[in-house]
Specification:
Length: about 70
């Protein structure tokens, strides 16, 4: 952030909402600041959604720490 940490959580949440908007609308993904939760009832669709989330994060120069993944 070019302006320091002022309003950082709000700005970051807006960025995450913009990146994952269509997945959030289908209720497959929930985002809360630095947490992304994938909620898929069918097991076969889970990997597809996780892959899409990771692709979008990488495309926007964001990353996930594998040790925090559950």
């Amino acid at each position: 952030m070019f302006f320091g940490l002022t309003n950082f959580p709000v700005i970051f949440q807006m960025i995450m909402n913009k990146i994952l908007w269509d997945l959030i609308n289908t209720k497959a993904v929930r985002s809360f600041i630095n947490d992304v939760i994938v909620e898929i009832k069918e097991e076969e669709g889970y990997n597809v959604v996780v892959e899409e989330v990771v692709k979008r994060l990488a495309k926007n120069d964001l990353y996930v720490k594998p040790e925090k993944y559950k």
